Amino acid sequence: MEKxxxxxxxxxxxxxxxxxxxxxxxxxxIPTELELCKDFDVSRTTVRAALNxxxxxxxxxxxxxxxxxxxxxxxxxxxxNTIKRYSDQIAVxxxxxxxxxxxxxxxxxxxxxxQSLDVALKAxxxxxERIRKANGEPTQFEIAYIPWDIAPGIEEKHAETSLYAxxxxxxxxRVAKTTETIEIALADERTSKYLHCEEGMPCFYxxxxxxxxxxxxxxxxxxxxxxxxxxxxIERNY
Length: 238
What we know:
Layout: H1 7-20, H2 33-40, H3 44-56, E1 60-63, E2 67-70, E3 75-78, H4 86-91, E4 97-108, H5 111-117, E5 124-134, E6 137-147, H6 156-159, H7 163-171, E7 177-186, H8 189-195, E8 202-211, E9 217-226, E10 230-233
Helix pairs in contact: 1-3, 2-3
């Protein structure tokens, strides 16, 4: 253990290594707090602090009266170039991915939409609210905006699969580039409702601007991902 590392941080790291190495499998009950105290020769308070942090981060699940279990693996999503739909990305992880549409409406462009989509102020923009689920559990809440002139009349059936595929197949609009910004946000009342999490839970927050080959902006979206259920893979070629 490094001198600068606290005991509970060290134990958390050790337990996380065991989980990621497969020593503790998803759904498996881990040793009790007392057993871990003996294993690491530390106090119960120290062990509990490590377990609490791993639970908050989504690696462990604590069931009252039964113990602490290894949580299901987080949903992996790629930030590298990919044409795979959400359901396809999830399927290779042994999970069933579903996209459900909350609401589709048409709104007048405000200042942020004017800037993000290069449209006129108050121009009609389609607002598409969707929830992505893995094995029935919400992992992402997304609000996408697409100018009416780009793809007029997007329907629920288009948004339930892949918006980008619908843009290409139905409206002959092909996404050639996306620019994504990621930061940490805390779930508000609306987000927590759709993601089935507590208000204030840390989430990944992503803003995306999609462009066609000519540089026309065809979509702007805001997405909230449950931080305890999602991680991202970035692949770079040099």
